[in-house]
Specification:
two-stranded antiparallel ribbon, two-stranded parallel ribbon, mainly alpha, globular, about 25% helix, 18 helices, about 5% strand
Length: about 775
């Protein structure tokens, strides 16, 4: 749903995760509009021991922390429209303190839960760049990571100003555009705060409370010259630079309990110590001194705007030959509008093309940016309620597959409706996917999987709303008897029980660890898959010709060798001397290219479904069994604008009309529908018998339908696993830079919280649970009912 799954917008070639940050010039001219100023007097003081930057409340490191009594009662997270002006100002002022204060300075001043905002952005990027595979997106760990990430931000805000009480959440359906039928008529009225809501159709219509105004988020489409957010409290918000991240602090954190210096880099901060990010410029021109950036920030010419040469339209007289030719490497994803060289937060929902699709048998429609209609956010209360109803989403994976788009680009989640025990693919119900929608419909900074928190008011309140859905779902699981609360920290049998408890009732069916012998048997089956065997042999041939000493075998075959066979797009494949004109490169590429038959054979290993069983599959990939569940091609999210020359439609009044949903958006979808995992299979046991199967769970690397950049995001992943290492129940959540100090009764210990512990410590506060109760803890916050 994010830019990790879409093409590079500016032709920069920025597909590698190490190309995470763009190179843009220094501060340059002042923004056309003066940035918002904090009006609260307690935030304005002189720089000194009580204020490291001269902005923010007086230092008091004991004011708030995990041990503070202020955290013993659950606090209410309010919806934006429930907050008054002073409350919103207080939130915005505290955020500015995070922008201007390092983590080291802030923790000395405000306590151990403070974070500099640049470090928070880097924390989110650590999840996306984890070499084992993304630890926070399109996997079951999505919710636990983002619950903890939002909580980390909240604790940092509260360390500065406890009077804020809790961060806000955003009730998206209130601002939804009307949902349309294919003929353009209205299916669901607009939300009551939508900018063009109709009082005749929408009860309590009040567009003055529309979220995309200067009172709240600012405009959805940035109104600055380069799509910068130019109105409200977030006007011309500066992006943080890679150099703002406090490498020195995090490479020696956490400190030794006895106060001795940290002599070894801490093993739990691998993201920092291992330098998972090696930012490079998206373009390497004649003025570039070198393309990789590491400790030094003097490797590019600021004055030449991204170091581009005359060929790319920059000043040919600009020379990088002065002492102060430094570069600012801003935390901005490579697939965004980096060519503008703007150092400010941007929003550009029209920036993504719709691609090329067939219209009839002849015409083609080339996407060159979406219409204004297609950029409108459409998410309804029905979508929210359907996913939160545990009769529809009966365990963790099914809930996750309702939140995330089912197929890339569709923005639709799926669920098996409550009145059915099993569904065919055609019976799956579709909803607008909560997580995918706002990212994709806003773009700019929020559209990148790594650096999306750079638009903080939008990002954190939006993901808080997803967390609200999750907590409502947890309560529904209890109401339907699919989860029984033991009212203690340990929620019951899990993967370490003997025999393993394979019901949905413990830990809500979160995917859990499997026995080593089961996994080994699973791996042994892979060796005999025809596609795997052929690819390993091709890799051995290629590496032998490259004089690799050790022969390639399945035991040490990895994703990098797979990608090496495929070759990178736009790059000349390496060929041995004397073979430049041979067909070897084509043979290697074909050996590493998976087809539908290969995908089904691999799925057999994971899920126990025989690809030769004609009761399950037939030659046309059509549905032959009630057990078919999985991705369906979608047509409900793309809208043609009023000016497109694409095929016209006839509306309900028999009038020729455009601006309606495009039924051809996924017309080229050829993904075969997979059946549900069979009882006894590794995937079936891992996912607690999940009935739906889609791009988010189980997340399988060895599939034809992987995310386009999965090689780079999981370069150390084990392709034999139907899960991402680091995301199962007992694993440390985000091992690359773990979470700590989030809950009153548990600080995370030496290694940070495990996924299991986050579930246990964030239970809904029901049945006598309390945030400060070590025996029966619960979430330190809850959500208001909203407007």
């Amino acid at each position: 749903s994010l830019s990790a799954s879409v093409p590079d917008q500016d032709g920069t070639g920025a597909t590698d995760r190490t190309l995470m940050f763009s190179t843009v010039p220094g501060p340059g001219p002042a923004p056309p509009t003066k940035p918002w100023e904090c009006p609260l007097p307690e935030y304005k003081q002189k720089k000194g021991p009580n204020s490291p930057t001269g902005f923010g409340p007086t230092c008091d490191p004991t004011r708030i922390g995990t041990e503070n009594a202020h955290l013993t009662e659950p606090r209410e997270r309010k919806e934006w429209r429930e907050m008054n002006t002073t409350e919103i100002n207080r939130f915005a002022c505290a955020l500015r303190v995070m922008d201007e204060t390092t983590t080291k300075e802030g923790r000395a001043c405000y306590g151990k839960t403070f974070w500099a905002f640049a470090d928070l952005v880097n924390l989110h990027a650590c999840a996306a760049a984890d070499p084992r595979g993304d630890q926070g997106h399109r996997s079951p760990s999505f919710m636990l990571f983002h619950k903890s990430f939002v909580r980390t931000f909240e604790m940092a805000i509260l360390s500065i100003d406890p009077n804020i009480e809790a961060i806000p959440w955003w009730n998206m359906p209130l601002d939804s555009a009307p949902v349309l039928f294919l003929n353009g008529t209205e299916k669901v009225p607009a939300g009551k705060y939508y900018k063009d809501c109709d009082p005749k159709k929408t009860k309590d219509c009040d567009p003055k409370k529309y979220i995309w105004t200067d009172k709240y988020f600012g405009k959805q489409t940035g109104s600055g010259p380069n799509f910068e957010v130019a109105d409200g409290r977030w006007a011309y918000r500066k992006l943080h630079r890679y150099g703002d991240f406090d490498h020195e602090y995090w490479s020696t954190y956490p400190p030794n309990p006895n106060g001795d210096p940290v002599t070894k880099p801490p093993v739990t901060n691998e993201c920092v110590v291992g330098k998972w990010f090696s930012p490079r410029s998206p373009k390497v021109g004649k003025l570039r001194k070198q393309k990789e950036f590491d400790d030094n920030l003097d490797q590019n010419c600021v004055r030449c705007c991204n170091g581009q040469d005359e060929e790319h339209g920059q000043d040919p007289t600009c020379k990088c030959n002065q002492t102060k030719d430094y570069v600012d490497v801003y935390m901005r994803g490579p697939t965004l509008d980096t060519a503008t060289c703007s150092p400010y937060v941007t929003r550009n929902p029209n920036g993504r093309g719709v691609g090329t699709v067939k219209i009839g048998n002849e015409k083609q429609f080339d996407g060159n940016g979406r219409s204004d209609q297609d950029s409108l956010l459409r998410y309804t209360q029905h979508d929210f309620d359907a996913c939160a109803n545990s009769n529809n989403t009966r365990n963790w994976i099914e809930w996750q597959n309702c939140q995330e788009e089912n197929l890339f680009g569709t923005l639709e989640g799926v669920y098996c409706p409550a009145d059915k025990e099993t569904c065919t693919q055609s019976e799956l119900e579709k909803v607008f996917a909560l997580h995918s929608s706002a990212h994709d419909k806003t773009l700019g900074e929020i559209g990148d999987v790594t650096t999306s928190p750079s638009d903080p008011a939008l990002f954190f309140s939006y993901h808080a709303y997803i967390d609200k859905n999750f907590m409502v779902w947890q309560e529904s699981m209890m109401d339907t008897g699919r989860f029984t609360d033991p009212v203690k920290k340990d929620l019951g049998h899990h993967d370490q029980s003997d025999p393993p408890d394979l019901t949905n009732k413990n830990y809500f069916g979160y995917p859990r660890n499997v026995k080593v012998e089961d996994w080994q048997a699973h791996v042994d089956e892979f060796v005999n898959v025809q596609f795997i065997d052929g690819m390993v042999k091709a890799s051995n041939q290629r590496m032998t010709l490259r004089n690799w000493v050790a022969p390639v075998s399945f035991d040490h075959f990895d994703l990098q060798l797979w990608q090496d066979l495929l070759g990178k797009d736009g790059q000349t494949q390496w060929m041995p001397p004397g073979h430049q004109n041979s067909s070897l490169a084509e043979q290697w590429h074909d050996a590493a290219t998976m087809n539908d038959t290969d995908a089904k054979m691999i799925y057999q290993v994971h899920a126990g479904v025989d690809p030769k069983d004609h009761n399950v599959y037939n030659v046309d990939h059509k549905i032959d069994t009630e057990d078919f569940l999985g991705p369906a091609c979608s047509s409900l999210t793309n809208v043609w604008g009023e000016t497109n020359d694409a095929e016209k439609f006839t509306n309900a009044k028999d009038e020729t009309a455009r601006g309606v949903f495009n039924p051809l958006f996924s017309s080229n979808c050829d993904q075969p529908t997979f059946p549900s995992p069979q009882p006894g299979s590794l995937t079936h046991n891992l996912t607690q018998c999940a009935r739906t199967y889609s791009t988010s769970g189980p997340f399988i690397y060895m599939t034809k339908y992987r995310p386009p950049d999965f090689f780079n995001r999981g370069r150390q992943a084990n392709p034999t696993l139907p899960w991402i290492p680091g995301t199962l129940l007992q694993d440390i959540a985000l091992g690359g830079l773990p979470f700590r100090n989030l809950f009153p009764t548990d600080d995370g210990g030496e290694f940070g919280y495990s996924n299991k512990e986050i579930i246990e410590l964030s239970m809904p506060c029901l049945h006598g649970r309390a945030p400060n109760n070590k025996t029966a803890p619960c979430s330190p916050y809850y959500y208001s009912k909203g407007e």
